[in-house]
Structures are given as C-alpha cells and as structure tokens.
C-alpha cells in the first residue's frame, strides 16, 4: 500500500519535472533600506508627527483584482520606519468620494472584505513562506492572523499585541500601526532583511484589491511577492514575558423537564497563561487550569443524516502560537480533541532554515473520540485521562520544505495512539507544487466495553498532490491511501480504509463587464476499499465566477455513488453558492444549498432532498450589525413523496460595538428536526430540537486583557412540540496581561 503511494509520488514528480522550469520565485519590487525613526511617533491616526519625516515611502500600488496589475484607481501611500521598540507603518488612503467609505464599528477580527480596510503582510523571517497579517479599518479596529503560503490559507485565530489608530479625513482616511518588536519573530542576525506586502481593500462598484507589489495571475503563492526591507539593525534580542492570569465564575440553573425543579450549580476557576520569548525567534508558552470557555456558540451545522464527523475550528488562545506549523496535508493535529486540559506547555521557534513546535499537556477527558471507517464514522466517549504530546520539525529549502510530525496520546490505565511520519512540499516551478505526506499509526485501545475492547493495531496513511496553475488553466492530481486501521486521535481524520484517485482541471477567463473572472472546471473522484472493491465516485462539472459588488458564485452538477449498507447507491444533485455585497447598509447576502437526489443513510435508500441556506449582514447604522441566517433541509421518499425529515436552523446575531474596545453581543439560535417515525427502521422521536440564547458584554484592552459578563438561556423542544426551558446561566471572566 505504501509502495503505491510512493509510485504515485514519483509519477507526479516526473510530470512536474517535465514542465518547463522557472526556478526563481516571481519577481518583486527592488529591496529598499528601512530607516530608523528620526523622532517619536504618537499612534493617533495623524501622520504629521515628526517621526514620519525620513520614513521609507511606498506609493506605487497595483490593482491586482479585478485588474491585472494595473495602476491603482486611487492613491495609497505607505510610510515605514522603526526604533528600538517598535515597527511603524502609516498609510494614507486617498478617496475621491469619502462619503462612500465603508467604515462600520465591528468586533475584532471582523474586518472583512465587505468594508474598507488595510492589511500588512509582514514576513520578518524573510522565508517567503508565511507572514503575520495585521488589518485595520477606518475606525481603528483590528483583525490579525497568519497567512500560510503552504496551503494558501488565512487563519484569524491567532492574536497579537499591536496598536492601531485611524481617522476619516476630507480626502479619504489614514491609519497607523505600532507593532512591538517583542510581538515579532525574527532571526538573530544583524543587519536583518524582512519582507512586506501591503494590501488595500476598496469595495465600490467592484471589490478592488490594491497591492504594493505586482501579483502574477496563475502564481501559486502570495508571500513570495513581498518586497524586501533591508538594513534593519540593532534589534533587541527579546527576553519578553507576558503573564495573563484570569478568574472566571459561572452560575448554572438546570432541569431535565418542565415538572422538575431547577438545581443550581456554581463554579469558579483560577488559572493563568504565560509566554516567554527567550530570543526574538522563539517562544515558550505555558498554561495552568486554562480557561477554554467559548464566549460565542459555534455556528450550527445540520447533524441529521451525516456520514462523517463534522469539523469545528479551534478558538482557544494557548494552541495558536505558530499555528501554521501544525497544518499538514493530512490533518494530524486537531487541538479540539484536547477537551479538558489541566496544564500545557509549548515551545515554538525557528533557527536558520529549521522551524519547530512541540506541545505537551494533560487532558482529563470528556467529549468524543472519532472512530473512522471507509463508509462512515462513529463516536466513542473519551471518558479517560491522558497525556498528549505533539510536534513538528520543518526544514526549508528555498520555497520548498521537508518536515517530520508526530502525535502521541497515552491513556491513563493503558492504551495509546501514536502517529508519526514525514511530509514535504516541492515548489518545482513558479506554477507547480508537489505535496506529499506519509504517516504510520500505532493504536492500543483502552479496555472499556462496549466502545473499546483493548485491541491493538497498526496502519498507515499517505497522500500526494500535484498542482499546476497558469494564467489560463489549472490542473490537479491527487492520490490518497488510508489503511483501514489508521487512527489519528489527536487529529481530524473521519474516513479511513480507502484509496482515492482525484483529477481536476479548470479553464480561466477574464472578461470585462458584470463578471471579471470565470473558471469552468471538471473533477473526477474515484474511491476503492483497501482490498480493491469499489467504494464509489463523484464526477462533476462546475463553474465559478466573480463580478461587480463582490459577486461570486459557484454551481456544480454531481453524479455521486456512495456505499449504503454494503450497497452502492447513486445520487445526482446540483449544488450552488451565490454571494454579493450590495451596499453599505446591506454589505452581504449569501445563498447556498443543494437540490436533487439525497441518500437516506439511516435507512439505506435514495430520495429527493433539498438544502437551502440564506444569510445576510444588515447594518442599520455604523455601530450595529445584524446577522440573520436560516438553513432548511428536507428529504422526501417515494412512493407518495413521503417526508422523512425536515431540519430547520434559525440564527440571529446582533452586535452593538461601542468603540474599538467594547461591545454588546446577543445571539438567538433555534434548531429543530421533525421526522416521520413510521419511515424509519429503528425508533426515533417525531420531533426534537432546542434554543440557545445569550447576551454578552465584552471589553478588550488587548486580546488578553479582557472583561466578559454574559447571560445564557437555553431550552429543548420535546416530541409534543413543547418548549422546555432547561438552563439559565451567568458567566463572568476577567483576565489581565502583564508584560515585561
């Protein structure tokens, strides 16, 4: 099995090698020397401070979307400098019609493409692989994260210490960034060379993107286009420390049904997070009795009639230092599997071409373990203590890299899951990427009937992908091989015991008018059991398009065959997605869903089903944002169009942002499923569901100095369609970050 993966990797490498080679990364503007600040700078959105005199000026911006590296339609001027403590960026964003600037008050990390904003991509290691992404809108509100070129993703989960200020002016708006050098990770060299790319989002009749460097259409990277800043000298060696203790308390009143009295439970927690940077390129994080409370419920997903486990993103701060280092082709690390950690310690850093992260902790259990299979996944309660360790060591070779990853969960009382193996990415040319990973797993389950029987088994997982992108077309080949006993209990691998071959190709068009980008494509996906038996397929043509008012849409027509109760069932269905940003008051509308055949996995038959989701962002005035959303799914069975089930989710989120530090948020979330028990082969309730309501006041001085006060009111819907209030709760959290 491993041999097939290796042969597939070699075949893809041969294809990539046959492509005409362009060894160098795409061109970028000439390097520029970064001068030191000549005087102090106050971060107030005013660019008239004496310290900006003599700063490096970048004023040549390119329209990279929808235009192809055209001169930007409006002027943008950036000023860059630094001193012994901070890196400064000031930006003047001219606008011929300032009244059209979209400048709402929003929560942190909600600075998105519907509104005017500026972003800095800062590659302080100058490896042209990943970068800090720091955003600000015209109200001075921040959004921050990591942009990772290895998989082309923006992750806004990580948070960083930095200051921003912005102001609207008669000629547009302007903003200032003050980034502590202790926030940055840079090598121990003198002088230093960093990379920077500045992006301006300009939503008007179209969503325009202006960048401080040209971006080639068909390029397979973004951070590789950063402009180099040279001559950065005499930087501190860090030794920065942050200690953030917290206190949290809750009062919960609960009952199981309407006739039962409420019981009251109060709980309090004390804990702390600590971060120490022994050098500017490394960090050590520790946590004791960490607070991993969620102050916002996960956006709901339809859970009825699902084959595999659903994925929810990580939001907890301790896991987010160097988060890009834990990304891999096979999701070996999914930190939400640590459900109740009592302590944790982590070290992350980079030394020359080597990057590393290692994390260890103790998990007191709770939640569920995913038990994957070839046709569906099951769950088992994780009602045991365990110690967890995971890590990765990566070696860069230019824009390519090789790495080794491992995870280990040792279960108290016996049992383990250990997974390890190499992965690599080779950027053969500016248009070709070859990515592969091989993992070996060793599992010994605890002896806990009926879910675990103390069995031991070993297996493997392998994947290889070749991506080829050109201005006018793109190609992708992928091969997966997952052994039937492969398990990654610290990751998210819901399907095993299969082999998959996938091929996709697309043709790209760049029209003018209502649409400015069209991609027509086709995908073929074949699955086999590891023993060779047919496991189904998914064949589909599709079209994706972009246009005015940030219009983007996608339509696919699927011919899909999947296993159901040891038989292959075929379903034909259409999926669709449509989104656009009409006005400042109605900045976003989204419609998506599917229609056609839908398999009833519970009873092993094919019916006609529909899923439709409608969501919007409504902004009555700049301080208030309303986000209504509704999802409805149903499945009809022949004969007589009998309705098997109808699932409905309704959600309304309202956020009133007072200023860049404080907000009030209210969420109401309703979920219900109605079934016809006579159409099921096993007992089911004719109706179930629930309501979740919450109100939260939050104050954030920075991302670790916070005050939260919240109230929750939840309930269930029983079979007689009666609402039963089951939970009332109060929540309080105070955290303060000391820095030295």
UniProtKB/TrEMBL annotation:
Residues 43-196 form the Carbohydrate-binding domain. GO terms for biological process: carbohydrate catabolic process. InterPro entries: Carb-bd_dom_fam9, DUF5916. Residues 260-269 have a biased composition (Polar residues). Residues 252-276 are annotated as: Disordered. Keywords: Signal. This is Uncharacterized protein.
């Amino acid at each position: 099995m491993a041999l097939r993966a290796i042969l597939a990797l070699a075949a893809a490498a041969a294809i990539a090698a046959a492509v005409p080679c362009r060894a160098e990364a795409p061109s970028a503007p000439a390097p520029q020397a970064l001068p030191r600040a000549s005087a102090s700078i106050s971060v107030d959105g005013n660019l008239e401070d004496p310290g900006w005199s003599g700063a490096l000026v970048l004023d040549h911006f390119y329209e990279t979307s929808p235009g192809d590296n055209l001169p930007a339609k409006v002027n943008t001027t950036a000023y860059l400098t630094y001193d012994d403590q901070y890196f400064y960026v000031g930006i003047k964003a001219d606008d011929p019609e300032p009244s059209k600037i979209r400048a709402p008050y929003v929560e942190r990390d909600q600075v998105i493409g519907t509104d005017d904003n500026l972003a800095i991509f800062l590659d302080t290691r100058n490896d042209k692989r990943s970068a800090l992404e720091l955003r600000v809108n015209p109200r001075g509100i921040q959004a921050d994260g990591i942009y990772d070129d290895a998989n082309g993703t923006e992750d806004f989960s990580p948070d960083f210490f930095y200051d921003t200020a912005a102001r609207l002016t008669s000629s547009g708006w302007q903003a200032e960034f003050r980034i502590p050098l202790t926030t940055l990770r840079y090598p121990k060299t003198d002088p230093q060379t960093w990379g920077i790319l500045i992006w301006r989002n300009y939503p008007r009749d179209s969503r325009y993107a202006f960048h401080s460097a040209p971006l080639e259409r068909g390029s397979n990277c973004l951070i590789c286009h950063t402009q180099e800043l040279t001559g950065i000298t005499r930087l501190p060696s860090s030794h920065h420390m942050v200690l953030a203790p917290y206190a949290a308390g809750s009062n919960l009143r609960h009952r199981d049904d309407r006739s039962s009295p409420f019981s009251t439970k109060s709980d309090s927690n004390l804990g702390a997070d600590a971060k120490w940077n022994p050098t500017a390129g490394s960090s050590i994080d520790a946590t004791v009795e960490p607070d991993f409370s969620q102050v916002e419920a996960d956006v709901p997903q339809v859970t009825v009639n699902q084959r595999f486990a659903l994925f929810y993103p990580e939001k907890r701060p301790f896991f987010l230092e160097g988060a890009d280092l834990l990304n891999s082709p096979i999701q070996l690390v999914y930190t939400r599997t640590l459900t109740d950690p009592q302590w944790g310690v982590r070290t992350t850093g980079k030394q020359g071409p080597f990057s590393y992260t290692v994390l260890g902790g103790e998990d007191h259990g709770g939640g569920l373990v995913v038990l994957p299979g070839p046709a569906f996944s099951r769950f088992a309660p994780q009602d045991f203590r365990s110690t967890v360790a995971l890590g990765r060591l990566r070696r860069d070779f230019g824009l390519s890299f090789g790495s080794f990853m491992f995870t280990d969960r040792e279960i108290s009382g016996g049992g383990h899951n250990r997974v390890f193996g190499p992965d690599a990415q080779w950027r053969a040319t500016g248009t070709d990427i070859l990515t592969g990973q091989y993992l070996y797993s060793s599992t010994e389950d605890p002896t806990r009937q009926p879910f675990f029987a103390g069995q031991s088994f070993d297996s493997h997982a392998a994947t290889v992908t070749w991506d080829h992108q050109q201005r006018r077309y793109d190609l992708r080949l992928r091969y997966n091989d997952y052994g039937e006993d492969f398990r990654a209990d610290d990751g998210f691998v819901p399907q095993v015991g299969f082999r998959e071959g996938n091929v996709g190709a697309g043709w790209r068009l760049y029209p003018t008018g209502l649409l400015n980008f069209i991609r027509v494509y086709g995908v073929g996906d074949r699955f086999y059991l590891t023993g060779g038996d047919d496991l189904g397929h998914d064949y589909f043509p599709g079209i994706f398009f972009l246009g005015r008012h940030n219009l983007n849409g996608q339509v696919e027509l699927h011919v899909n065959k999947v296993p159901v109760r040891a038989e292959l069932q075929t379903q034909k269905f259409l999926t669709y997605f449509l989104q656009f940003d009409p006005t400042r008051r109605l900045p976003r509308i989204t419609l998506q869903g599917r229609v056609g055949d839908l398999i009833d996995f519970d009873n092993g038959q094919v019916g006609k089903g529909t899923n439709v989701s409608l969501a919007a962002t409504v902004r009555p005035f700049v301080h208030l944002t309303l986000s209504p959303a509704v999802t409805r799914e149903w499945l009809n069975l022949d004969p007589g169009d009998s309705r098997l089930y109808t699932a409905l989710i309704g959600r309304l989120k309202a956020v009133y942002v007072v200023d860049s530090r404080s907000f009030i948020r209210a969420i109401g979330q309703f979920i219900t499923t109605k079934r016809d028990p006579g159409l099921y082969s096993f007992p089911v309730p004719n109706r179930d569901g629930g309501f979740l309501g919450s109100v939260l006041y939050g104050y954030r001085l920075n991302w670790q100095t916070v005050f939260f006060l919240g109230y929750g009111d939840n309930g269930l819907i029983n079979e007689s369609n009666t609402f039963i209030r089951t939970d009332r709760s109060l929540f309080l959290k105070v955290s303060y970050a000391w820095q030295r």
